[in-house]
Amino acid sequence: MSDKTIGVLGLQGDFREHAASLKAIGQNPVLVRRPHELEQVDALVIPGGESTAMWKLATTAEMFEPVRKRVADGMPVFGTCAGMIMMADRIVDAAAGQQTFGGLPITVRRNAFGRQTESFEEPIAFDGVGELTGVFIRAPWVESVEEGVEVLARVTSGPATGRIVAVRQGNLLATSFHPELTTDHRVHEYFVDLVRAA
Ligand SMILES: NC(=O)CC[C@H](N)C(=O)O
């Protein structure tokens, strides 16, 4: 168990599944919904869900600026799917006015895999973790990364072959897919190691 407290942003999306994954590997995650709760965590998971809804709820809850600032100040963050979108500096196919916390110098394309493949599973080779099953649900992909961003996984078959689906820069980790929806907790372990080292 790490002595660091990991929060899960609990405004919208599959935050319960992330909390369960973290508990399964011996962590004691706390849900973060208000600014004072954010102050009590050393790291944050931003779940999958819907990035425009998350942006609006974060704004209403007066969480948008506080989270943005903690990310900019170097807090370790792990975002999945909508969480990845929230961490990206730029979005292609954003909703009108849609904003992100930012922090990762990447461009993501929302709903990139198209209607025909709204939801699918795909074997992924994840650098530093190994082979795993990627669960994609109306997922974004990473259209481009700036220098210094490490590409950890790409799609290896089908029409989207080569597309980037996992990245890391320093304390920021993001995946297009949902490790929290599987019983394989190695990506969460990877994040916990990152948090410990931070
Ligand atoms: N499963 C997900 O998180 C989907 C993300 C969603 N398509 C969005 O734009 O936010």
Task: Please describe the structure with a list of short key phrases separated by commas or semicolons.
198 residues; alpha/beta; seven-stranded mixed sheet; three-stranded mixed sheet; 26% helix; binds glutamine
Radius of gyration: 15 Å
Roughly how much helix do the residues carry, as a percent range?
25-40%
Q: Distance N terminus to C terminus? A: 15 Å
**Continuous helix count:** 6
The residue ranges in which pLDDT falls below 50 over 5 or more consecutive positions are none
Rough outline: globular
Our estimate of the beta-strand percent is 25-35%
What's the count of strands? 12
H/E topology pattern = EHEHEHHEHEEEEEEEEH
Find the structural class using helix and strand composition: alpha/beta
**Bound chemical compounds:** glutamine
Q: In which order are the strands of the major sheet placed? A: 2-1-3-4-12-11-10
Largest sheet: 7 strands, mixed
Overall average residue pLDDT: 95
How is the topology of this model organized?
Blueprint lengths: L5 E4 L5 H10 L5 E3 L2 H5 L3 E4 L4 H10 L3 H9 L4 E4 L1 H6 E5 L11 E6 L9 E8 L3 E8 L3 E5 L4 E5 L9 E6 L2 E4 L10 H12 L1
Parallel strand pairs: 1-2, 1-3, 3-4, 4-12, 5-6
Antiparallel strand pairs: 6-9, 7-8, 10-11, 11-12
The structure holds glutamine.
InterPro entries: Class_I_gatase-like, PdxT/SNO, PdxT/SNO_CS
Pathway: Cofactor biosynthesis; pyridoxal 5'-phosphate biosynthesis
Protein name: Pyridoxal 5'-phosphate synthase subunit PdxT
